[in-house]
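Researcher: Quick test of sequence recovery. C-alpha coordinates follow.
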Protein backbone atom coordinates (compact mmCIF):
# COMPACT_ATOMS: atom_id res chain seq x y z
CA UNK A 1 0.00 0.00 0.00
CA UNK A 2 1.19 3.53 -0.72
CA UNK A 3 1.38 6.34 1.86
CA UNK A 4 -1.81 7.72 0.32
CA UNK A 5 -3.55 4.40 0.87
CA UNK A 6 -2.36 4.24 4.47
CA UNK A 7 -3.62 7.76 5.12
CA UNK A 8 -6.96 6.96 3.51
CA UNK A 9 -7.38 3.90 5.68
CA UNK A 10 -6.45 5.81 8.83
CA UNK A 11 -9.34 8.21 8.28
CA UNK A 12 -11.84 5.48 7.38
CA UNK A 13 -13.37 5.10 10.84
CA UNK A 14 -14.30 8.78 10.98
CA UNK A 15 -15.62 8.85 7.41
CA UNK A 16 -17.85 5.79 7.62
CA UNK A 17 -18.87 5.69 11.27
CA UNK A 18 -20.17 2.36 12.50
CA UNK A 19 -20.59 -0.05 9.61
CA UNK A 20 -22.95 -3.00 9.84
CA UNK A 21 -21.91 -5.97 7.71
CA UNK A 22 -25.27 -7.51 6.83
CA UNK A 23 -24.99 -11.27 6.30
CA UNK A 24 -26.70 -14.61 6.81
CA UNK A 25 -30.46 -14.20 6.68
CA UNK A 26 -32.95 -16.92 5.82
CA UNK A 27 -32.61 -17.34 2.04
CA UNK A 28 -31.32 -20.47 0.33
CA UNK A 29 -27.92 -18.75 0.13
CA UNK A 30 -27.50 -18.27 3.89
CA UNK A 31 -24.28 -20.27 4.31
CA UNK A 32 -22.54 -18.54 1.41
CA UNK A 33 -23.62 -15.17 2.79
CA UNK A 34 -22.25 -15.96 6.26
CA UNK A 35 -18.91 -16.89 4.71
CA UNK A 36 -18.87 -13.68 2.67
CA UNK A 37 -19.82 -11.61 5.71
CA UNK A 38 -17.13 -13.02 7.95
CA UNK A 39 -14.48 -12.19 5.35
CA UNK A 40 -15.74 -8.63 4.82
CA UNK A 41 -16.04 -8.04 8.57
CA UNK A 42 -12.45 -9.13 9.18
CA UNK A 43 -11.17 -6.96 6.31
CA UNK A 44 -12.98 -3.83 7.49
CA UNK A 45 -11.85 -4.28 11.07
CA UNK A 46 -8.31 -4.77 9.81
CA UNK A 47 -8.58 -1.34 8.18
CA UNK A 48 -9.51 0.24 11.49
CA UNK A 49 -13.21 0.59 10.62
CA UNK A 50 -15.77 0.17 13.39
CA UNK A 51 -17.62 -2.77 11.88
CA UNK A 52 -20.20 -5.08 13.43
CA UNK A 53 -21.99 -8.18 12.15
CA UNK A 54 -25.76 -8.29 11.70
CA UNK A 55 -27.41 -11.60 10.82
CA UNK A 56 -30.54 -11.03 8.76
CA UNK A 57 -33.26 -8.43 8.35
CA UNK A 58 -34.76 -8.56 11.89
CA UNK A 59 -31.33 -7.80 13.37
CA UNK A 60 -30.93 -4.92 10.92
CA UNK A 61 -34.36 -3.58 11.80
CA UNK A 62 -33.48 -3.56 15.51
CA UNK A 63 -30.20 -1.77 14.82
CA UNK A 64 -32.01 0.87 12.75
CA UNK A 65 -34.59 1.47 15.50
CA UNK A 66 -31.75 1.89 18.00
CA UNK A 67 -29.82 4.15 15.57
CA UNK A 68 -26.74 2.05 16.32
CA UNK A 69 -25.33 1.90 12.76
CA UNK A 70 -24.32 4.63 10.32
CA UNK A 71 -23.84 2.58 7.15
CA UNK A 72 -24.45 -0.93 5.84
CA UNK A 73 -22.16 -3.18 3.82
CA UNK A 74 -24.66 -5.61 2.33
CA UNK A 75 -23.54 -9.16 1.61
CA UNK A 76 -26.92 -10.68 2.34
CA UNK A 77 -27.57 -12.91 -0.68
CA UNK A 78 -30.82 -13.97 -2.32
CA UNK A 79 -34.50 -13.23 -1.74
CA UNK A 80 -37.10 -14.01 0.96
CA UNK A 81 -34.85 -13.11 3.86
CA UNK A 82 -31.90 -12.28 1.65
CA UNK A 83 -30.75 -8.83 0.68
CA UNK A 84 -30.90 -8.75 -3.11
CA UNK A 85 -34.61 -8.33 -3.83
CA UNK A 86 -35.14 -4.68 -2.89
CA UNK A 87 -36.66 -5.22 0.57
CA UNK A 88 -33.51 -4.38 2.53
CA UNK A 89 -32.80 -1.49 0.21
CA UNK A 90 -36.26 -0.01 0.80
CA UNK A 91 -35.86 -0.38 4.56
CA UNK A 92 -32.49 1.38 4.52
CA UNK A 93 -33.70 4.21 2.30
CA UNK A 94 -36.70 4.76 4.57
CA UNK A 95 -34.29 4.99 7.49
CA UNK A 96 -31.91 7.27 5.61
CA UNK A 97 -28.95 4.92 6.12
CA UNK A 98 -26.44 4.61 3.23
CA UNK A 99 -25.60 1.13 1.96
CA UNK A 100 -23.50 -0.68 -0.61
CA UNK A 101 -24.93 -2.04 -3.81
CA UNK A 102 -27.92 -1.29 -5.99
CA UNK A 103 -31.11 0.48 -4.95
CA UNK A 104 -34.65 -0.85 -4.72
CA UNK A 105 -35.35 -1.02 -8.45
CA UNK A 106 -31.98 -2.40 -9.51
CA UNK A 107 -32.04 -5.04 -6.78
CA UNK A 108 -35.59 -6.17 -7.52
CA UNK A 109 -35.05 -6.32 -11.29
CA UNK A 110 -31.78 -8.22 -11.01
CA UNK A 111 -33.21 -10.76 -8.57
CA UNK A 112 -35.96 -11.62 -11.06
CA UNK A 113 -34.27 -13.20 -14.07
CA UNK A 114 -37.44 -13.05 -16.16
CA UNK A 115 -37.84 -9.29 -15.78
CA UNK A 116 -34.11 -8.76 -16.28
CA UNK A 117 -34.46 -10.45 -19.65
CA UNK A 118 -37.45 -8.31 -20.60
CA UNK A 119 -35.42 -5.15 -20.00
CA UNK A 120 -32.42 -6.44 -21.93
CA UNK A 121 -34.53 -7.58 -24.86
CA UNK A 122 -36.27 -4.19 -25.00
CA UNK A 123 -32.83 -2.58 -25.33
CA UNK A 124 -31.57 -5.08 -27.90
CA UNK A 125 -29.11 -6.76 -25.53
CA UNK A 126 -28.52 -10.50 -26.11
CA UNK A 127 -29.95 -13.04 -23.67
CA UNK A 128 -30.94 -16.68 -24.29
CA UNK A 129 -34.44 -17.43 -25.54
CA UNK A 130 -36.71 -18.12 -22.59
CA UNK A 131 -40.19 -18.94 -21.35
CA UNK A 132 -41.59 -18.01 -17.93
CA UNK A 133 -43.38 -20.93 -16.30
CA UNK A 134 -45.97 -20.73 -13.55
CA UNK A 135 -47.28 -23.70 -11.61
CA UNK A 136 -49.77 -25.59 -13.72
CA UNK A 137 -48.33 -24.46 -17.07
CA UNK A 138 -47.70 -26.98 -19.81
CA UNK A 139 -43.94 -27.51 -19.48
CA UNK A 140 -43.74 -29.80 -22.51
CA UNK A 141 -45.23 -27.09 -24.69
CA UNK A 142 -42.76 -24.60 -23.24
CA UNK A 143 -39.89 -26.99 -24.00
CA UNK A 144 -41.10 -27.37 -27.57
CA UNK A 145 -40.90 -23.59 -27.96
CA UNK A 146 -37.36 -23.44 -26.58
CA UNK A 147 -36.01 -26.69 -27.96
CA UNK A 148 -33.50 -29.05 -26.35
CA UNK A 149 -31.01 -28.75 -24.77
CA UNK A 150 -32.40 -26.27 -22.26
CA UNK A 151 -32.12 -25.13 -18.66
CA UNK A 152 -34.85 -25.12 -16.02
CA UNK A 153 -34.30 -23.00 -12.91
CA UNK A 154 -36.09 -20.87 -10.33
CA UNK A 155 -36.51 -17.35 -11.66
CA UNK A 156 -35.41 -15.69 -8.42
CA UNK A 157 -32.61 -17.77 -6.90
CA UNK A 158 -28.83 -17.53 -7.12
CA UNK A 159 -25.72 -19.65 -6.48
CA UNK A 160 -26.89 -22.28 -9.03
CA UNK A 161 -29.69 -23.30 -6.65
CA UNK A 162 -32.40 -25.44 -8.28
CA UNK A 163 -30.85 -25.49 -11.76
CA UNK A 164 -31.08 -28.50 -14.10
CA UNK A 165 -29.75 -28.94 -17.62
CA UNK A 166 -32.24 -30.94 -19.67
CA UNK A 167 -31.25 -32.70 -22.90
CA UNK A 168 -34.50 -34.46 -23.77
CA UNK A 169 -38.09 -34.78 -22.63
CA UNK A 170 -37.26 -37.58 -20.20
CA UNK A 171 -35.50 -35.17 -17.84
CA UNK A 172 -38.16 -32.48 -17.87
CA UNK A 173 -40.43 -33.57 -15.00
CA UNK A 174 -37.56 -34.03 -12.55
CA UNK A 175 -36.06 -30.65 -13.48
CA UNK A 176 -39.37 -28.85 -12.93
CA UNK A 177 -39.93 -30.65 -9.62
CA UNK A 178 -36.53 -29.47 -8.35
CA UNK A 179 -37.05 -25.85 -9.41
CA UNK A 180 -40.55 -25.81 -7.89
CA UNK A 181 -39.07 -26.35 -4.44
CA UNK A 182 -38.21 -22.66 -4.44
CA UNK A 183 -40.63 -19.69 -4.31
CA UNK A 184 -41.80 -17.88 -7.42
CA UNK A 185 -41.99 -18.65 -11.11
CA UNK A 186 -39.68 -20.89 -13.08
CA UNK A 187 -37.51 -19.95 -16.03
CA UNK A 188 -36.84 -22.21 -18.99
CA UNK A 189 -34.13 -21.01 -21.38
CA UNK A 190 -31.86 -22.18 -24.15
CA UNK A 191 -28.70 -23.90 -22.95
CA UNK A 192 -25.79 -21.98 -24.46
CA UNK A 193 -22.75 -24.16 -25.16
CA UNK A 194 -19.45 -24.14 -26.96
CA UNK A 195 -17.69 -20.91 -26.03
CA UNK A 196 -17.34 -21.03 -22.27
CA UNK A 197 -18.78 -19.38 -19.17
CA UNK A 198 -17.68 -15.89 -18.14
CA UNK A 199 -18.29 -13.37 -15.41
CA UNK A 200 -17.50 -9.67 -15.22
CA UNK A 201 -17.29 -7.79 -11.94
CA UNK A 202 -18.44 -4.18 -11.77
CA UNK A 203 -16.88 -1.73 -9.33
CA UNK A 204 -17.66 1.98 -9.16
CA UNK A 205 -19.09 2.11 -12.70
CA UNK A 206 -16.25 0.29 -14.39
CA UNK A 207 -16.00 -3.29 -15.58
CA UNK A 208 -13.22 -5.39 -14.07
CA UNK A 209 -11.24 -7.92 -16.12
CA UNK A 210 -13.43 -10.83 -17.17
CA UNK A 211 -13.00 -14.31 -15.74
CA UNK A 212 -13.45 -17.48 -17.74
CA UNK A 213 -14.65 -20.27 -15.49
CA UNK A 214 -13.34 -23.75 -16.26
CA UNK A 215 -14.77 -26.38 -13.88
CA UNK A 216 -13.12 -29.79 -13.60
CA UNK A 217 -16.47 -31.38 -14.30
CA UNK A 218 -18.79 -30.58 -17.15
CA UNK A 219 -20.65 -27.74 -15.42
CA UNK A 220 -20.08 -24.88 -12.99
CA UNK A 221 -22.59 -26.02 -10.36
CA UNK A 222 -22.88 -25.29 -6.61
CA UNK A 223 -20.09 -27.75 -5.79
CA UNK A 224 -17.72 -26.25 -8.37
CA UNK A 225 -18.53 -22.73 -7.13
CA UNK A 226 -18.10 -23.12 -3.39
CA UNK A 227 -16.48 -26.44 -2.53
CA UNK A 228 -14.22 -27.74 -5.29
CA UNK A 229 -10.56 -26.78 -5.32
CA UNK A 230 -9.96 -27.81 -8.93
CA UNK A 231 -12.11 -25.21 -10.71
CA UNK A 232 -9.86 -22.97 -12.83
CA UNK A 233 -10.40 -19.24 -13.18
CA UNK A 234 -8.69 -17.57 -16.14
CA UNK A 235 -8.38 -13.81 -15.69
CA UNK A 236 -8.66 -11.97 -17.94
CA UNK A 237 -10.85 -14.51 -19.64
CA UNK A 238 -10.29 -13.06 -23.11
CA UNK A 239 -7.97 -10.63 -24.85
CA UNK A 240 -8.08 -7.73 -27.28
CA UNK A 241 -11.39 -6.70 -28.81
CA UNK A 242 -13.22 -9.74 -27.44
CA UNK A 243 -12.33 -8.75 -23.89
CA UNK A 244 -13.36 -5.15 -24.45
CA UNK A 245 -16.64 -6.20 -26.05
CA UNK A 246 -17.47 -8.48 -23.14
CA UNK A 247 -16.72 -5.81 -20.54
CA UNK A 248 -18.76 -3.22 -22.45
CA UNK A 249 -21.73 -5.60 -22.72
CA UNK A 250 -21.56 -6.42 -19.01
CA UNK A 251 -21.54 -2.75 -18.05
CA UNK A 252 -24.48 -2.06 -20.38
CA UNK A 253 -26.45 -4.92 -18.86
CA UNK A 254 -25.67 -3.73 -15.33
CA UNK A 255 -26.71 -0.14 -15.99
CA UNK A 256 -29.80 -1.19 -17.96
CA UNK A 257 -31.23 -2.72 -14.76
CA UNK A 258 -30.56 0.51 -12.82
CA UNK A 259 -27.77 -1.15 -10.86
CA UNK A 260 -25.06 0.84 -9.12
CA UNK A 261 -21.97 0.65 -6.93
CA UNK A 262 -20.75 -2.88 -7.48
CA UNK A 263 -21.99 -6.22 -8.72
CA UNK A 264 -21.30 -9.06 -11.11
CA UNK A 265 -22.65 -9.97 -14.55
CA UNK A 266 -22.72 -13.59 -15.68
CA UNK A 267 -22.40 -14.36 -19.40
CA UNK A 268 -22.22 -17.42 -21.66
CA UNK A 269 -20.48 -17.59 -25.03
CA UNK A 270 -21.63 -19.85 -27.83
CA UNK A 271 -19.53 -21.74 -30.34
CA UNK A 272 -19.87 -18.86 -32.84
CA UNK A 273 -18.29 -16.46 -30.34
CA UNK A 274 -21.51 -14.57 -29.44
CA UNK A 275 -22.12 -13.47 -25.86
CA UNK A 276 -25.41 -14.13 -24.04
CA UNK A 277 -26.40 -12.39 -20.79
CA UNK A 278 -27.61 -14.64 -17.97
CA UNK A 279 -28.02 -12.53 -14.84
CA UNK A 280 -26.74 -9.72 -12.63
CA UNK A 281 -25.75 -10.27 -9.01
CA UNK A 282 -26.11 -7.12 -6.91
CA UNK A 283 -24.47 -8.51 -3.74
CA UNK A 284 -21.80 -10.87 -5.08
CA UNK A 285 -20.06 -13.47 -2.98
CA UNK A 286 -16.93 -12.52 -1.05
CA UNK A 287 -15.72 -16.01 -0.16
CA UNK A 288 -12.38 -17.64 -0.92
CA UNK A 289 -13.93 -19.02 -4.12
CA UNK A 290 -15.71 -15.83 -5.17
CA UNK A 291 -15.12 -14.11 -8.48
CA UNK A 292 -15.14 -10.35 -7.88
CA UNK A 293 -12.11 -10.59 -5.53
CA UNK A 294 -10.27 -12.62 -8.17
CA UNK A 295 -10.94 -9.98 -10.84
CA UNK A 296 -9.94 -7.15 -8.49
CA UNK A 297 -6.68 -8.93 -7.71
CA UNK A 298 -5.85 -8.84 -11.43
CA UNK A 299 -5.82 -5.03 -11.07
CA UNK A 300 -3.62 -5.19 -7.96
CA UNK A 301 -6.44 -4.73 -5.42
CA UNK A 302 -6.15 -7.04 -2.44
CA UNK A 303 -9.27 -8.16 -0.57
CA UNK A 304 -9.13 -5.38 2.04
CA UNK A 305 -8.71 -2.68 -0.60
CA UNK A 306 -11.61 -4.13 -2.56
CA UNK A 307 -13.84 -4.01 0.53
CA UNK A 308 -12.80 -0.41 1.14
CA UNK A 309 -13.59 0.62 -2.44
CA UNK A 310 -16.99 -1.10 -2.28
CA UNK A 311 -17.72 0.72 0.97
CA UNK A 312 -16.70 4.01 -0.63
CA UNK A 313 -19.43 3.57 -3.25
CA UNK A 314 -21.99 3.86 -0.45
CA UNK A 315 -20.75 7.41 0.11
CA UNK A 316 -21.12 8.31 -3.56
CA UNK A 317 -24.46 6.55 -3.91
CA UNK A 318 -26.07 7.51 -0.60
CA UNK A 319 -29.84 7.91 -1.02
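Model:
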Amino acid sequence: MTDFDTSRQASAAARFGRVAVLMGGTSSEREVSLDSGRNVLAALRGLGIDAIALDGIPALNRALREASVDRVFNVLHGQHGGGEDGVVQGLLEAAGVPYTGSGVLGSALSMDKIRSKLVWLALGLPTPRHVAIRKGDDVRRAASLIGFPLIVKPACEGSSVGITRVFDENGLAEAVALAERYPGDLLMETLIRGGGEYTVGILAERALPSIRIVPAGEYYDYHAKYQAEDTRYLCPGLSGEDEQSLRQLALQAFQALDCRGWGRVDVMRDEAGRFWLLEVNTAPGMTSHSLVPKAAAELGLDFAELCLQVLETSVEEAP
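The mean pLDDT is 90.
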